Amino acid sequence: MPWLKPDRVRCEVPLSSKKQLLEALVKLLITDNPGMDPNAVLNCMYARERVSSTGLCNGVALPHGQLPNQEHPVAAFIQLTKGINYDAPDGRQVDLAFAMVIPTEANGEYQVCLSGFGDKLRNADFSARLRSIKDPAHIYTLLTAPE
Predict the structure, then answer these.
(1) 119 lies in a domain?
(2) DSSP state of 28
(3) Quick one: pLDDT at residue 117?
(4) Is 138 a catalytic residue?
(5) 146 lies in some domain
(6) Position 15 in a domain
(7) Can you give the CATH number for the domain in which 70 is found?
(8) Per annotation, catalytic residue among 21, 42, 64, 127
(9) 104: left (phi over 0), alpha (psi -120 to 50) or beta
């Protein structure tokens, strides 16, 4: 997954709200992307959240959005120190979040990738492994390993 870079993965981040989580993810997403407007990124994520929560289940969230004039997808990952309320359908608190911003003009390939990655994160064994790792480089390797 070329859209996720090692410097956009964080472990044991102490946040206490969905708002703080989204803001932290935006900061990671704009890392090494100086042309990205942080307000536009945050607004596109909030717009998607208004449609329905991107909390999946099993303590996992997949916040995402689309931006015009975005050249390529950009992704980030945060493992929280403890779960936060996120309006997930199963009612569980979220402690793992994978965020992605894709071009508005994106073809179906990116949406298929996002959906497939959501399935991967929802897997209880995979998410348990992500929770057990406390090293960003190791999490990056796990997230980007071929299935």
Answers:
(1) yes
(2) H
(3) 78
(4) no
(5) no
(6) yes
(7) 3.40.930.10
(8) 64
(9) alpha
